[in-house]
Amino acid sequence: MVAQKETILDRPLNALERRLLNDFQDGFPLTPRPFRTIAERVGSTESEVMTTIQNLQSHRLISRVGPVFRPNRVGASTLAAMEVPKDRLEHVADIVSSYGEVNHNYEREHSLNLWFVVTAEDRESLNRVLQEIEKRSGLEVIDLPMVEDFYINLGFPLQWT
Amino acid sequence: MDLRELSQLLEPDPLDLDLVHAIQGGLPLVEQPYARIASELNITEEEVIRRLERLLETGDIRRLGVVVRHRELGYRANAMVVWDVPDERVSEIGQLLGRQSCVTLCYRRPRRPGRWPYNLFCMIHGRNREGVLRHLDRLIDDCNLGWIKHDILFSLRQFKQRGAKYISERDESGKRSGQLSASLS
């Protein structure tokens, strides 16, 4: 069996990288020099912590160090689904992705095979986007807005193999 | 009503919106990131830290830290697992699912009779399809969910994925059109 490559780095992640990736998804220090606070906690130096984060970011293993917001604080968003004939999927996916209001657009394994998230300033603008997609594709869009949010976990536990 | 619920009923504070706009793409990687943001907003570093503490307390910011990229870290499979839970139990089961470490998002959404029967959605990431299915089996066992009808929608092609933009640029009048919404990833 071929060992699966763990990351796009050519080497396994080192201990500092693993700790930064795993232990600081939440609770980033709100101190004037947060990278120094982290360094003290992990037994490193401020500059090494900053360089390592920079490096992880340039290798696209992290997208940012920053906030994750509560959904739907203001504005409107929904998850939408469409049943698209296989031979039209790429074309319809292009129509959907062309809207700035769409930020995720995935093919999924189901008869409803195209799933995308739309966020807009208000429900009215959101409806306009959904209706336009229906009109341009000639297909029904199923609108599944969030009713309640049960997300409790903070961050994503990584397992190193 | 607790602070978290109360804060959702209030209009966001304009300075909070400016702050969110300044940090939504990430904190600057400098020794004193909060001081840097403070100087952009013409407020003090203490004020930035105080407001961030408050936004975390109200839950408007759910977490502050490293945002990892699952796919690039080798978690290539993601499945949306959907459940048809009796309405009177959906909050209870949703909270239970939301606490499981393999679940990264958990939302209640409406059913659409005749088209879509499921009212509870969660995301499970794994290194591969087998890993996701193993997580799901354990989840069903641990939470005793065997009696609930469910379906698994693995992702195939990713046509578009970009970091959600939470707040748009100011319009000509200088008014910020507020928009704070995260999305399923």
- What does the overall shape of chain B look like? elongated
> In terms of quaternary structure, what is this?
heterodimer
User: What is the first-to-last residue Cα distance of chain B?
Assistant: 30 Å
User: What string gives the helices and strands of chain A in order?
Assistant: HHHEEHEEHEE
Mean pLDDT over the residues of chain B: 84
Residue-averaged pLDDT of chain A = 88
Beta strand count of chain A: 6
Which strand order spans the largest sheet of chain A, edge to edge or round the barrel?
Answer: 3-4-2-5
Give the low-pLDDT segments of chain A: 1-6
Strand order of the largest sheet of chain B: 3-4-2-5
Number of helical regions of chain A: 5
Largest sheet of chain A: 4 strands, antiparallel
Q: Rounded to an integer, what's the Rg of chain B over CA atoms?
A: 20 Å
Write down the Rg of chain A: 21 Å
What's the helical proportion of residues of chain A?
25-40%
Helical coverage of chain B, percent range: 25-40%
Order of helices and strands of chain B: HHHHEEHEEHE
* Structural class by sheet pairing and helices of chain A: alpha+beta
Detailed description of the structure:
The complex is a heterodimer of chains A (161) and B (185). Chain A has a 4-stranded antiparallel beta sheet. The longest helix of chain A has 15 residues, at 123-137. Chain A is elongated, with a radius of gyration of 21 Å. Chain A is an alpha+beta fold. The model of chain A is unreliable at 1-6 (pLDDT under 50). Chain A is built from 5 helices and 6 strands. In chain A, strand 3 (102-108) and strand 4 (114-120) form a beta hairpin. In chain A, helix 2 (34-42) crosses helix 3. Chain B has 185 residues and is α+β, with helices and mostly antiparallel strands. Chain B has helices at residues 3-9, 14-23, 33-41, 45-58, 90-98, 129-143; strands spanning 61-68, 77-84, 103-108, 120-126, 149-161. In chain B, strands 3-4-2-5 form a 4-stranded antiparallel beta sheet. In chain B, helix 3 crosses helix 4. Chain B is elongated. The chains are: A alpha+beta (161), B alpha+beta (185). Strand 1 of chain A pairs antiparallel with strand 1 (61-68) of chain B, so a sheet runs across the interface.
